[in-house]
Amino acid sequence: MSYANERRIAELAIQRACILAERVYNSQVKGTITKDDKSPVTIADFGAQALIISSITHAFPEDPIVGEEDSNDLRADKSKRDLVWGLVKDTLDATKDLTGELGDIKDDEEMLAVIDKGTHQGGSVGRIWALDPIDGTAGFLRGGQYAVCLGLMVDGKVQVGALGCPNLPVDPEEPEGKKGILLSAVRGEGATMRPLSTPSAQGDPISMSSTTDFSKARFCEGVETAHSSHREQASIAKSLGITAPSIRMDSQAKYASISRGVGEIYLRLPVSMSYEEKIWDHAAGSLIVEEAGGVVTDIYGNELGFGQGRTLKTNKGVVAALRALHPTVLKAVQKELKVFKL
Ligand SMILES: Nc1ncnc2c1ncn2[C@@H]1O[C@H](COP(=O)(O)O)[C@@H](O)[C@H]1OP(=O)(O)O
Ligand SMILES: [Mg+2]
Ligand SMILES: [Mg+2]
Ligand SMILES: [Mg+2]
Fold first, then answer.
1. Confidence of residue 259 (pLDDT cuts 50, 70, 90)
2. What integer pLDDT is reported at residue 340 of this predicted model?
3. Which residues, if any, are the signal sequence (predicted)?
C-alpha cells in the first residue's frame, strides 16, 4: 500500500497551518484561553485545526479525525471567533496556490463545523487521522519550541506522520540561523526532512545519531515539570553515564530533534500514574523516530497502542532511543522507577 498522496497532503496541510501559526507567534494577539484541564489554547490552535481538518476532508472525505480542539469556546465568544476566522481567511488568501489540493473554507460557520470534525473517538479499525494543531502551546506562548503534528493510523498502527517545527533551526550546526523544518515518514519507507519554506521540494532522508557511547550521548526532555519527571530523568541519565546537560524543549520537537541526530534519547517519565497520554501528542513523532532508526516504547517496554481511543490508555510514559541504546535505557528506567513488565 502506497501512502505517497497521504504524506504529500499531510505535509502541505502542515505547511499551510504553520504559516497561520507563525503569524500568531509573531503577533501580540494570542487570544489565550485556559481550558478546563488548566492547559492554554490560543487562536493559533483553533485556526490550525480548522485549516488541517479542512485539508484532510478535501483530499480524503471519508476519513475520520481525532483532533485535540473543539469549537465550544469559540461558539461562546463571538469576538474570539471573529479573530480566528480573520486569521484563517487571511492565511487562505495568502496561500491560494494550495487551494486546489487542500480546499477552502467559505465562512466562520463552516470553520466551526470543520473544527468539530475532530471529535472522533479513535479506535483500531480503518483509517483515522490524529491531529495536534499546536503541540507545546506553553512553548508557543513563551517563545520556545512548538510543533504542528499529524499522523494517519490504519487499524490502530501509525502509517504516516508529519511534523512542522517552525522554530527548530534548518541546520542544527547554526542554531541562530534560518528556522523552520518539516519532517515526515511513511512506515517502512524512512523519514525525511526539508525546510518549511520550500513546499514543493523533496525531503532529504534523516537518521538518528549513531552514538552508542553513553558518555557522549545527550537526552531530550520537556520543559514543563508537570508533564514529565525531571528528577527521575536526571537520575537515569546519571546512572547511564550521560554527562551532557539535558536538551529541554516543548512539544514533539523532541522527537524531531532525535530523529535528525540532535540527541540520542527522549525520556518522558510520568509525573502522575493517572495521566493518559493523548494519541495526537505521539502519533507523528514516534513514527518519525522509528523510521529514523529508533525504538519508541512506554516505561514497561510496550509499544505505544494507538488503537484504543483518543488516549494511549494502556501505556505510561515514553522511552525513545536509538535502536542499539534502547534496551539499556529501558533497563535503567525500570530500575529507577521500580517497574516490571506487566
Ligand atoms: N500531566 C501530564 N503529563 C504528560 N503530558 C501532559 C500532561 N498534561 C498535559 N500534557 C501534554 O503534554 C504536551 C506537551 O508536552 P511537552 O511538555 O513535552 O511539551 C501537551 O500536548 C499536553 O497536552 P494538552 O495540551 O492536551 O494538555
Ligand atoms: Mg500536544
Ligand atoms: Mg495542542
Ligand atoms: Mg493543548
1. very high
2. 63
3. none
Q: Count up the domains in the chain and report the number.
A: 2
Per DSSP, the three-state class of 245 is: coil
Q: Is 135 in the pocket of ligand 1 (CB under 6 A)?
A: yes
Q: Is 45 a catalytic residue?
A: yes
Q: How many residues does the chain have?
A: 342
Tell me the CATH number at 134.
Answer: 3.30.540.10
Provide CB contacts within 8 A for 228, sequence distance 6+: 221, 222, 267, 268, 269, 270, 271, 317
**Is the CB of residue 224 below 6 angstroms from any atom belonging to ligand 1?**
yes
Q: Do 19 and 151 belong to one domain?
A: yes
User: What residue numbers bound the domain in which 222 lies?
Assistant: 214-337
Task: State the pTM of this model.
Answer: 0.97
Mean pLDDT across 278-293:
98
Last residue of some domain: 171, 206, 241? 206
Say yes or no: 298 and 191 in one domain: no
Q: How far apart are CA 287 and CA 184, in angstroms?
A: 9
